[in-house]
Amino acid sequence: MLTSYAAHFDTPAGYLDFARFGPPSRDAVAATARAMDEAAQAGHTTVDDLMRAEETARRAAARLSGSDAERTVLLPNASTGLFHAALGVRDGVVLVPRTDFPANHYPWRRTAELGRATPRWLDPEPGEGVTADLVRAALTDDVVAVSVSAVDFRTGFRADLAALREAIGPGRLLIVDAIQAFGVTEMAWEAADVVVAGGQKWLRAGWATGFATLSDRALDMLEPVLTGWTGVRDAGVFDGVEHAPALSARRWSITNLSPVTAAAFAAALDLVERHTVTAIEAAIAARITELTEVIHRYRGRVLSPTDPARRAGVLSFTVPGHDPSRVAKALHAEGIALTCREDSLRLSPHASTPPEVSERLAAALSALPHQRS
Predict the structure, then answer these.
(1) Is 130 helix (H, G, I), strand (E, B) or coil?
(2) N or C: which end of the chain has fewer CB within 10 A?
(3) CA 347 to chain CA centroid, nearest Å
(4) Which H/E stretch holds residue 242?
């Protein structure tokens, strides 16, 4: 456990569901409360003062992604960024994994319906994710982009972004959903043309937070279909005529976002910067290793990659002979929160997760019928 990081949270020790939602820190909660309190006592400078949180958060997101503020824009969630990217592709084929979370599917289905880009579905091998070899095998001259998750939501498979960039070459776009990785996994974000992430999971900023970064190639190739009044040049000039989209990533802005959620996002990103992605990732990896050992001890079957270089903070497993819902109930009885699906269970610890959670997992699995250590 990264003790200095964990001290900022009140999350129960058995909470292992960060891939679904990351309970915010006291810092993010306090920032939200302060912003709401300032809003309630509004004066002539209040709105301008509150809006500064967006700039703070935007610059922090840019630093963590290896980009800069001009190429970074805050968004209310990852899905908004994915729709911006998808609708921006005028035509051609986009390679998309069939195994990705549905939020990565619907933007491309909608573009096909509108007669713009057409998705071509990739089918990774079971337990695998999108690899450079899989992409190379699917490349044809009409492929203009590849859209992938940095980390697979089911198994924690970590995509090799640098290898994917090399595979597709400089003329195609690499669009990356980073929601299961950003802030907790060191990755080659600079290899991507679009990086989008929501802040409600591993970043622990609460809902309605997120961002996108765009490369120069993305700014050049993607049409700004969803540009709103805040995403244009001279946005403060209300002259009744259409203004051209901003030259920066701000062209993906539709309207002003909540300065309250921006304050929470800024506080969450600050925690990551202060404690570093490297340290957070190492703490998560240690918990994953311990939990994996417990699952193997009680004859569970791990579905996630076992090679630490190929996995992130998601640990999926089954217990042969036991329905996942029954296993989940046993874990709940030990105070463990997790995601249960029809065919598997998913644990996702964070850097604040204490080592004792492995004992809880062991107690739950040992209580299942016909299990022996």
Answers:
(1) coil
(2) C
(3) 16
(4) none
